[in-house]
Amino acid sequence: MSLGEFDIIHTYFNKKIKRQDVVLGLGDDCAILEPPAGKEIIVSTDSLVLNRHFLPETSPFDVGYRAVAVSLSDIAAMGGNPAWLMLSLVLPKVDESWLDEFSKGLFFILEKFNVDLIGGNISRGPLSITTQAIGYGISKNLLRRSAAVPGDLIYVTYTLGDAALALALIKKEIQPDLFSAEEIAELTRALWQPTPRIVEGQAIGKLAHAAIDISDGLLADLSHIMANSQVGAMLYLENIPLSASLKKLPNEKKIELALSGGDDYELCFTVSPKQLPQLDVVNEHLNYPFTCIGQITTHPGLRIKDLEGKSISFSQKGYQHFSEVINKVCG
Amino acid sequence: MSLGEFDIIHTYFNKKIKRQDVVLGLGDDCAILEPPAGKEIIVSTDSLVLNRHFLPETSPFDVGYRAVAVSLSDIAAMGGNPAWLMLSLVLPKVDESWLDEFSKGLFFILEKFNVDLIGGNISRGPLSITTQAIGYGISKNLLRRSAAVPGDLIYVTYTLGDAALALALIKKEIQPDLFSAEEIAELTRALWQPTPRIVEGQAIGKLAHAAIDISDGLLADLSHIMANSQVGAMLYLENIPLSASLKKLPNEKKIELALSGGDDYELCFTVSPKQLPQLDVVNEHLNYPFTCIGQITTHPGLRIKDLEGKSISFSQKGYQHFSEVINKVCG
User: Which residues in A lie closer than 8 A to residue B137 (C-beta atoms)?
Assistant: First the structure.
């Protein structure tokens, strides 16, 4: 490498620490952190691998941004406060312009959420980025996948499917002429610069039961809540919030992207109907209100009421139509 | 992948949590940890990359062990208590026998040091392993690279150079016929299964000033203490502790491996001469006593008294002989 590990860290990553709770940041064997008294530490790790989570043509700024966003999203899904980030970079070579842009994307989102980069590691090898987000919260208010209760309403933040639509456009599976340049820019941002729903996660911490961030697609991630909570769920397709862009697609495609497309990093959470008045208060302060998309059931498995009012059941093998009449509970 | 991410985690990594301070382990968006009151959190991350930090023929058990050891060694170098580990695995394919052995090596060392695996992530891509060790300590007792003071004696744990000797044997740079099968097995263990010096780090926490773990070689790592503390150092070659195996090599080679060979993960620390009585007490309880190898100086740079009693100065460009007479302070 033309620059050594320490030169790279010094040049691109050694920003001034802003948080009072960082006793010691980069440059020693460990960082030293002073967690707030009476709170629990929460921690998560994620990796981005070239050609798996981003493409050779993805801008380094977006790679840096996204590497942080996916980890902060896990903090959001617990309703926690993000505070610190560790970064492990595996780089095939020292590409200074790549590092410059990458670090700008990384610090852009770190600063937005008041998170300090407190340590890390650089190795030579096939390009991948591993981040570890550390935050804190009060254990009883933290949102676990296992805490959903039958009768809970199921909500999501913002809209679903835009990141998957952006990926389909990149892969040329969908023709771009349906969309304006502004719409394509917006979709691309949804894919590469998702907003971790930290504000929303904290707002529902005391109200909601279970939560998860939607990284693998609504159905896959809701199934984790169902499995961990040992409950079933009913979804109403017509309630799934879609962007104006996604609504331009044929029904089947837009539903596929909204239900099974990953990378949105919206939150899916469950809340007792008793909490609806408080949830309405929270909703009034948000740019985009939460959307109720279904209900947790004692009946195991996932059932979906489709756009024509028919109910379908969903299993790992795919959709299976069935005939039960479903009364909607929300929306 | 034949097994999905969740199957792999369930089969190989979902061991019962043993620590009382883990509120929530694997299987949610974040782990929840309850750090001990009145202590600071310490955290470090390291990556092992195939063909960089281990070889295709390295046993998966050793890869798992070493991935943990290098991170725990950073905790040791602060004099901290290790408590929790996060694991990010990038795997080219699901090789169940590899995963089985890898996880055995990983848990072998985790259990030895009472550390719980509390979370992680599995992606597909070129093989690499990133670990994040989290521990705790009392800030004022934690050992920083910046805390060395002129006059401090410089100590190391155990012996230096065996890991580099093992690597030289693997690379066939040194002929194996100098060594018995037992010696080669011992050297190989030093390379792939280094012992993080947790016990020693904690024992010196209240006594020592600065510390670092020797991952890149004594000279490189001591230079970090010198740079961060803005001090110089004097080393006595005849004091550098060498194993019986390393002593079989010609002088020049054994010194090169002991000074510049990495991967030993021994600790190098500095301590005021006033603390020697207390250090002796600590030493009596160790399997292998600490060895004094030199002294911190106000004179900048590193000087070394060689085996013939001549002094040499060391710079990034290599060794340079000079004529100053040096009075030894230790050993």
Answer: 32
CA-nearest of B153, B162, B140 to B222 is B153
Q: Do A45 and B120 touch (CB under 8 A)?
A: yes
Question: What's residue A329's pLDDT?
Answer: 55
pLDDT at res. B314: 59
Which parts of chain A have pLDDT scores under 50? Answer: 1, 316-328, 331
- Beta partners for A233? A296, A302
Of B21, B29, B48, B228, which to mutate for an interface test with A (greatest number of A Cβ within 10 Å)?
B29
Q: For residue B232, what are the CA distances in angstroms to A247, B241, B295, B297, B302?
A: 68, 21, 9, 5, 6
Residue B5 CA to residue B119 CA, distance in Å, equals 13
Give residue B72's identity as a one-letter amino acid code. L
pLDDT score, position B308? 77
**Spatial separation of the C-alpha atoms in residues A94 and A2, rounded to whole Å:** 7
β pairing state of A40-49 and B31-33: antiparallel
Tell me the two tokens of residue B167. 């690597």
The pLDDT confidence band at residue B323, using thresholds 50, 70 and 90, is: very low
ipTM of the complex model? 0.90
Query: In this structure, what token pair is assigned to residue A168?
Result: 């389909």
Q: What stretches of A14-111 adopt beta strand conformation (E)?
A: 22-24, 31-33, 40-49, 81-91
Alpha carbon distance B85, B83 (integer Å): 7
Please tell me which of the candidates A30, A51, A135 has its beta carbon nearest to residue B42: A30
Smallest Cβ–Cβ distance between A29 and the set B44, B118, B125 belongs to B44
User: What are phi and psi for residue B237, nearest 5 degrees?
Assistant: -55, -40
pTM value > 0.80 = yes
Contacts of B217 (CB under 8 A, 6+ apart): B164, B259, B260, B261, B262
What is each CA distance from B4 to A232, B9, B94, in whole angstroms? Answer: 22, 9, 9
CB–CB of A200/A157 below 8 Å? yes
Whole-angstrom Cα Rg for chain B: 21
